[in-house]
Amino acid sequence: MCGICGFTNATQGDEAILSAMCEVMAHRGPDGEGLYVADGIALGHRRLALIDLEGGSQPMVRSTGARAAEISSPARTAAGAPCADACSATARGAYAIVFNGEIYHYRDLRAELAADGWEFATDSDTEVLLVGYLAWGEAVLDRLRGMFAFAIWNRATRELFCARDFFGIKPFYYTQRQGHFIFASEIKSILEHPAYERALNEDALAAYLCFQFSALPETFFKGVFKLLPGHCLRVHADGTISERRYWRPTYAIDRNRSEADAVDAIDAAMRESVRYHNVADVEVGSFLSSGIDSSYLAACLAKENPAIHTFSVGFSLYEGNRDEVSWAKELADQLGVANASKHIRQEEYWDAVSRVQWHMDEPSADPSAVSLYFVDWLAAQQVKAVLSGEGADELFGGYCVYQAPLASRRLGWAPSGLLRAASRAARALGVRGANYLERASGPVEDWYYSNANDVSFSAAERDRLLRRPPAVPDPQQIVAPAYAEVADLDEVTRMQRVDMAFWLAGDILLKTDKMAMAHSLESRVPFLDKKVFEFASTLPVSQKVSPDQTKIALREAAERAIPHDWAQKRKLGFPTPIAAWLREKPFYQRVHHAFTSPAALEFFDVSLLLKLLDDHKAGAADNSRKIWIVYAFLEWYRIFFIDGRVPEAPSIR
Fold first, then answer.
1. Is residue 280 within 8 Å of residue 273, measured between CB atoms?
2. Which residues contact 314 (CB under 8 A, 6 or more apart)?
3. Structure confidence by residue, pLDDT tens digits, 119-152
4. Which residues contact 566 (CB under 8 A, 6 or more apart)?
């Protein structure tokens, strides 16, 4: 895992700009810096060395498209010492690549290419990716198994080809300014280019209040876009861009396969995926929480390497019988693996918020992003790569909200108008059950748009809160294209597809990447393997959720590796006690200060913000997540548009 950046229409004097773009994301790659400026292209790279530690430096240049290997790496060390002349920053080649990610089956691809006469000068997946592109063109994307964001320069045609992986595990941002196509793994790198003048995209703010993450293709920075998951683009010599979708998830539900056969296939697919995700020239560890996902992965990895290290964090103030750490330690003992753990202190958590928002590039209102910052810090003390359980819920039916369509069927006899009226009455009276009645009143397309549905602002609340509500589509309109792709499938699968397109890519995977890279750590996600998805996409609802359980078949498969109590444990997410903290004076005052700041006055009706905060403090309502959505934005805005400096890293102990 690394950081990449670059721009077109570059001149030799632009090396200083490229160096600044690399330097601001040095945390993504402390093991080396590479700069390539030649023939109108500037490509930069920060390296976290995990595969081919000696020979995998980037940008990687191939002098010819012939099968003979003529590779040079115009790299410089992290300290800035230049390489030998043979791989200087001006070394020319017919093709040059910068690549962020891992191609887990690169050795299989290399063998296939070698059998066809292609030669290799390194043992890196970067060279395999470049040669694969030379051999197969854009069709190489169909053969890849891994996570990736990359750019390949063709000197002869003066074209730049860029692509992002199937699920959006690795980020890729771009903009066009003053004749330059500028791209990077992090937006803050693009901000270093003098052609870009930062400006806030208020449309993104409006969508964010409903989703709790940046939900539009255009980011919070006006004119800066995300390359969407499963998409590639080509920047032509005249500066025009052609973009296409090269992969889309498809579903072929198999209702004839027995649950026992499904369990066998899931376990086989997961063990194979973990084996591929363990490919590295450094140790790969694993996160370990109280949940099934990380527990299953850690157990599978322990079969590959019994000496693995696992990592856990929790909160000593967590309101429950047991916290994450105690569950994780007990399972680690049963698996016979090492476990390092930490309880996050209140002050540490709050002191980290600013740094987290800086690393995220765009505001993130997911409280677990801050928790991830700490577990990634803990893991980075011992390893350079970890396995993490993201994607299991979206693929195998893990969210409790997926049970809602099953419960709604019990009210199928009632007219939808009656149910909507009852829902409105229940909400007005503060009676429980309003959400249940609303969900039963119509199809999921009418009410479900994100896993943050119940904790974020509705479109009506958003418009009352904003001082300048823009004319943006409502959340249901934003997610409608994803629903349209699976319109003929069951409601649960339709919800999963929406979450894959928005919640997974926009919240879960973004925080996974940014928080890990904040500590120069690679986070690998074996559930989001193309082969695993191909099987998960065939599961019927009965093997995913029931009124009483989620991830039914996956839990049965996990019992092949972990004890019953862990495999069948109900989902907790990553519990963070912000609701309790916001009622404590120090943290209430911190948020109150933000809610009365000039930035708050610029964007929001402050009286409504203070009512949210005071009602929560008084115990009249749990407004904690809505408060956090606004607070996270204000912290982010202060960092990027007011202070203009990098927040200090919190003191962690």
1. no
2. 323, 324, 325, 326, 328, 341, 342, 343, 344
3. 999 999 999 999 999 999 999 999 999 999 999 9
4. 290, 292, 295, 327, 331, 558
pLDDT of residue 73: 58
CB count within 10 Å of CB 245 equals 10
DSSP conformation letters of 204-223: HHHHHHHHSS--SSB-SBTT
d(CA 339, CA 403): 34
- Please count the other Cβ atoms lying within 10 Å of the Cβ belonging to residue 620: 11
Which residues are CB-contacts of 625 (< 8 A; sequence separation ≥ 6)? 212, 365, 367, 452, 455, 456, 578
**Residue 282: which of 529, 4, 48 has the closest Cα?**
48
Cα 34 to Cα 15: distance, rounded to the nearest angstrom: 11
Domain limits, the chain: 2-245, 259-398+498-541+551-567, 400-491, 578-643
Q: How many other C-beta atoms lie within 10 A of the C-beta of residue 342?
A: 17
Q: Are 198 and 221 in contact (CB under 8 A)?
A: yes
Predicted pLDDT of residue 55: 87
CA dist 240 and 128 (Å) reads: 28
CA 355/CA 358 separation, integer angstroms: 5
Give the sheet arrangement for strand 284-287, strand by strand.
338-343, 309-314, 284-287, 385-387, 522-524
Spacing of C-alpha 55 from chain mean position: 28
Pick among 3.40.50.1400, 3.20.20.150, 3.40.50.720, 3.60.20.10: CATH of 2-245: 3.60.20.10
Backbone angles phi, psi at 73, to 5 degrees: -120, 105
In whole angstroms, what is the distance from residue 325 CA to residue 181 CA? 46
Strands 241-245 and 338-343 come out as unpaired
- The Cα angle at residue 534 between residues 533 and 537, in degrees rounded to 5: 75
Name the active-site residue from 2, 162, 210, 232. Answer: 2
pLDDT in tens, 161-200: 999 999 999 999 999 999 999 999 999 999 999 999 999 9
410 by Cβ neighbours in 10 Å (0-12 / 13-18 / 19+) ranks as exposed
pLDDT for 564: 93
Q: Which fold has domain 259-398+498-541+551-567?
A: Rossmann fold (3.40.50)
Please give the DSSP secondary-structure letter assigned to residue 249: -
Catalytic site includes residue 2: yes
Mean pLDDT of the region 101-113: 97
Q: Could you give the CA distance from residue 32 to residue 19 in angstroms, rounded to a whole number?
A: 12
Determine what percent of the chain is predicted with pLDDT higher than 70.
89
Between helix 346-360 and helix 624-637 the angle, nearest 10°, is 60
Please state the separation of Cα 436 from the chain's center in Å. Answer: 30
Q: Give the pLDDT confidence of 318-365 residue by residue, as tens digits.
A: 445 567 898 899 999 999 999 999 999 999 999 999 999 999 999 999
Q: What angle do CA 448, 632, 373 make, to 5 degrees?
A: 95
